[in-house]
Amino acid sequence: MAGIKVFGHPASAPTMRVLLTLHEKNIDFEFVHVDLMGGEHKKEAFLARNPFGQVPAFEDGDLKLFESRAITQYIAHRYEGQGTNLLPADSKNIAHYAIMAIGMQVEAHQFEPVAAKLVSEQVFKLKKGLTTDQAVVAEEEAKLAKVLDVYEARLKEFKYLAGDTFTLTDLHHIPTVKYLLGTPTKKLFTERPRVNEWVAEITKRPASQKILQ
């Protein structure tokens, strides 16, 4: 059976989510670079892996997956006994798993859409020689502040967002947090003590350092 392959781009936050998970699990894999600038992700060969033309795509032997959060959950379950446990300490406890699932949903629907707009405005626009729209930044920062207020309250009770152990809930945030730490939006993290500690904790992990260099 063929090994694991990740088809993606190293600057893509969804791709980074999958790479982080593999590094945390100490799993060997082959990375296949997808040329986004050249439109490779919209061509027939890649669309056969993900019909929506987005990175990453993933293979584990005969199994083919897309959507980064689905891939990370597959890896965390399939290789649960290897490397870092990314599930609740008692992964069979349905209540504990549901808490982690809530955290993943909050990241996907409350944190990421807002944070991604801020990254687009303050990172990728500049790389393209475009001007950041400060009105958009102000609007999105106000939304992100509300999310981080919820996180601050949660992190006063627990070390991590889903409890006292590092899980996929935390991991899913790392790529976009990494980008925002290089922008003025960093202040939203640093002015909240518990959030600031959590950000420092999740970004200093060895797996994080491998993709954040």
From TrEMBL:
<dbReference type="GO" id="GO:0009407">
    <property type="term" value="P:toxin catabolic process"/>
</dbReference>
<dbReference type="GO" id="GO:0004364">
    <property type="term" value="F:glutathione transferase activity"/>
</dbReference>
<dbReference type="Pfam" id="PF02798">
    <property type="entry name" value="GST_N"/>
</dbReference>
<dbReference type="InterPro" id="IPR034347">
    <property type="entry name" value="GST_Phi_C"/>
</dbReference>
<keyword id="KW-0963">Cytoplasm</keyword>
<feature type="domain" description="GST C-terminal">
    <location>
        <begin position="93"/>
        <end position="213"/>
    </location>
</feature>
<comment type="similarity">
    <text>Belongs to the GST superfamily. Phi family.</text>
</comment>
<feature type="domain" description="GST N-terminal">
    <location>
        <begin position="2"/>
        <end position="83"/>
    </location>
</feature>
<dbReference type="InterPro" id="IPR010987">
    <property type="entry name" value="Glutathione-S-Trfase_C-like"/>
</dbReference>
<dbReference type="GO" id="GO:0005829">
    <property type="term" value="C:cytosol"/>
</dbReference>
<dbReference type="InterPro" id="IPR040079">
    <property type="entry name" value="Glutathione_S-Trfase"/>
</dbReference>
<dbReference type="InterPro" id="IPR036249">
    <property type="entry name" value="Thioredoxin-like_sf"/>
</dbReference>
<keyword id="KW-0216">Detoxification</keyword>
<keyword id="KW-0808">Transferase</keyword>
<dbReference type="InterPro" id="IPR036282">
    <property type="entry name" value="Glutathione-S-Trfase_C_sf"/>
</dbReference>
<dbReference type="InterPro" id="IPR004045">
    <property type="entry name" value="Glutathione_S-Trfase_N"/>
</dbReference>
<protein>
    <recommendedName>
        <fullName>glutathione transferase</fullName>
        <ecNumber>2.5.1.18</ecNumber>
    </recommendedName>
</protein>
<dbReference type="Pfam" id="PF00043">
    <property type="entry name" value="GST_C"/>
</dbReference>
<dbReference type="InterPro" id="IPR004046">
    <property type="entry name" value="GST_C"/>
</dbReference>
